[in-house]
Amino acid sequence: xxxxxxxxxxxxxxxxxxxxxxxxxxxxxxxxxxxxxxxxxxxxxxxxxxxxxxxxxxxxxxxxxxxxxxxxxxxxxxxxxxxxxxxxxxxxxxxxxxxxxxxxxxxxxxxxxxxxxxxxxxxxxxxxxxxxxxxxxxxxxxxxxxxxxxxxxxxxxxxxxxxxxxxxxxxxxxxxxxxxxxxxxxxxxxxxxxxxxxxxxxxxxxxxxxxxxxxxxxxxxxxxxxxxxxxxxxxxxxxxxxxxxxxxxxxxxxxxxxxxxxxxxxxxxxxxxxxxxxxxxxxxxxxxxxxxxxxxxx
Length: 298
What we know:
Helix content: over 70%
Number of strands: 0
Number of domains: 1
Mean pLDDT: 86
Strand content: under 5%
Order of helices and strands: HHHHHHHHHHH
Low-confidence stretches: none
Shape: globular
Largest sheet: none
Radius of gyration: 19 Å
Number of helices: 11
Structural class: mainly alpha
């Protein structure tokens, strides 16, 4: 294996763990009674300078101005794919476990397949249909497990909010392909993240006084950790991994995400791990892997 491939495997693994740790950090921050809008604004405020720096670096090589169409695509997809998705996700984590949240988010390839079939009139093969059945059966198992241990209505609300987050991100993925091809991945991602960060900060400014920022130091530490280790670094580590080992292998390694979240939730949040939960996670991961590998075959 080439040296770049070894690094690609390692970065794909670290990116999966980094994305998984976000739910843990959100849950830990919520213990200090910070509300969703404030926590999301803090995360984006700390992440935005990194994306501005990347954008300035990329623009030194890509000086072509964006067309009006590209600007509208960046604006719309940034709001849908990063702002709305993050907002629904943070809201949902008020009601469900970190493990269930990560499994629902992990359904995005199945939703992307459905949206692509509806929009581009692409047929869904039998193998993909089987994979989707496996994935949603796994979610049903974990949902029933959590609903039995918590108030069923709150778990349902949280699951619906996180599913809305997954749907928003899937819409972003379906719509972003052509824009990324024209603008470039790093440039497009940086613009979209800056749009989302600005929306989060505007939402906070419109709904909260500045005194809402008088929070324990620990909340700021969690927000910084979310920005750096669960937002900025995973985005670029995953891009590096895909460039060196391909999206199929990156998807395979990324499947460790739900398992990582369940383990971290057990370690830091004292969330219980049961056989039913593990079985559900395995079903979801199996279905998503079938779809990801089928989609990435030459």
